[in-house]
Each structure stands twice: as C-alpha cells, then as structure tokens.
Amino acid sequence: MLRNLLFVLFSQFVVISAMAGGLRVGLSPDYPPLVFKQEGRIVGIEADNVRAVSEIIGQKMTLVEMPFERLLPALQAGEIDVIMSGFSVTAQRSEQVIFIDAYMQMGQMAIMHRDKVAQFAQPWSVYREGVRIGVEPGTTGASFAEQELKDAQIKYIADATAAFAGLRNDEIDLYIHDAPTSWQLATSTENNDLISLYSPLTNEMLAWAVRKDDDHLAGELNRALAKMKTSGTLRYILNRWIPVTVEVR
C-alpha cells in the first residue's frame, strides 16, 4: 500500500516538475490556417491557442517544429508534451493518446472547377457512378473515398497544387481534402476559378493530445480550453483565421 502511494506521489511530482519547467508543444507548420509559417513566424489557429493556454495555465510553452508524421512518435518518446497541430480525433489515435476536449469540428470537402458547379451542386452528386475523384494518399479524404465512394474512379494525387491543376485540366471532377483547403479558396485570388461544396462529407473533431499517462496535464488543458470557450477567446481565434462559419462544441 505504501509502495503504491509513493509511486503515485512520485509520478505526480514528475508531471508537476515538468510543467514547472515549461511545456514542449509539437506542431507541423504546414497546414494553413491551422498552423503555418508567415514571414518566418509560426502563426495560425494553433499558434494563437498556444498563447492563450500558456497565459491561462501560467506555464511557458515552447514550440517544437517537426514533420506531421513525427508528432505522435515524438509524444510517445517524451520529446514533446502535447500535440497542438490540427490533430484529428480518430479511434486509432485514441488508443495511443489522451485527447483533450475538441476545440473545433470540421470535415472533408469536395472542391471543383466552377464550370462544373451545375453538375455537382447537390451533395448527393458526389456519390454518382463514374465520378473522377482526386485524393491525397494516406489522408482522411482518401479513406472516405475508398470506403464510401465505391463507384467512383479514384486518383491519388501528391498535394493540393497538383490536384488543382488536375481540376483545371479536366483530369478529375472533384478533389476531396480537409476543410482548411476549401477555406483557403474563400480568400484566394489565384484560385478563384475553383469552388468548394461547403457541406462537409465527414464529421471530424480536432483536439490536442497528450501521453496516455499524463492525466494531470490533460486536466489542466481541459480546464484552459473550457475557459477559452466561456470567455469567447476560442471563438475570437477561430473567427480571426477562418473565413467561413465553423461549429464549435
């Protein structure tokens, strides 16, 4: 009994000591408007979230930049303390991390050339037989197309730039990707020949993540997020970066 009590007390001491020294926030700044670089600085929704949380919990939070695929391994290895990088909540990830309450709801959206608006004006039209769908390999959009669009012709495309070229050259009818890609079209002048179906095809929640054994930090971040929601801080941050309405629960 005493041995177990000492172990619990030691574990709490380690967590509190780590927080006293500051938190390392892992992120991949290549996902506008969630987190990206502007004139050499990391900006976006998550960057603002970090500043708000840091002030609320009274802890220094240091940004640690790395490729997106490195975030989860780095968290599990103890190289970072929290992931704040537009991280989608999935069943597979939930087995490996503790997710904080979601701060934003979004989903996959279909982008098309304006010449095809009449053809795909209704959300159900995406599901028609023979539709040529472009997706990025390994993404939620690709998973959606593979599982739900059985009658489509799926083409795997490296990135949004190549997909936009495919839409313009009539190589694909639709490009399915994360909502932020569609949000950018709303303010882009160079891509004003493209348009998105703003009705999401999937329902995804974004949340921050900590290690499975870090219940103390999870509690601190959940309390900070709750305060951001009730004070209007989170809504202000989202409105600052997103040109369309997003539901926050």
Topology readout:
Elements lengths: L1 H19 L2 E5 L2 E2 L3 E4 L2 E3 L1 H13 L3 E5 L2 H9 L5 E2 L7 H4 L2 E3 L4 E3 L1 E6 L18 E4 L4 H9 L4 E4 L3 H9 L5 E5 H9 L6 E4 L6 E3 L2 E3 L3 H17 L1 H9 L8
Parallel strand pairs: 1-5, 1-6, 10-11, 10-12
Antiparallel strand pairs: 2-3, 3-4, 7-15, 8-14, 9-12, 9-13
Helix pairs in contact: 2-8, 2-9
Structural write-up:
By secondary structure, the protein is an alpha/beta fold. The chain has two domains: 2-105 and 205-241, Periplasmic binding protein-like II (D-Maltodextrin-Binding Protein, domain 2, 3-Layer(aba) Sandwich); 108-197, D-Maltodextrin-Binding Protein, domain 2, CATH 3.40.190. It is 39% helix and 22% strand. It has helices spanning 2-20, 45-57, 68-76, 91-94, 140-148, 160-168, 179-187, 215-231, 233-241; strands at residues 23-27, 30-31, 35-38, 41-43, 61-65, 82-83, 97-99, 104-106, 108-113, 132-135, 153-156, 174-178, 194-197, 204-206, 209-211. It has a five-stranded mixed beta sheet with strand order 11-10-12-9-13, sandwiched between helices. The longest helix is centred in the N-terminal third of the chain and has 19 residues, at 2-20. The model is unreliable at 2-19 and 245-249 (pLDDT under 50).
Short note summarizing the structure:
The chain is of the alpha/beta class and 249 residues long. It is built from 9 helices and 15 strands. It has 2 domains: 2-105 and 205-241, Periplasmic binding protein-like II (D-Maltodextrin-Binding Protein, domain 2); 108-197, Periplasmic binding protein-like II (D-Maltodextrin-Binding Protein, domain 2).
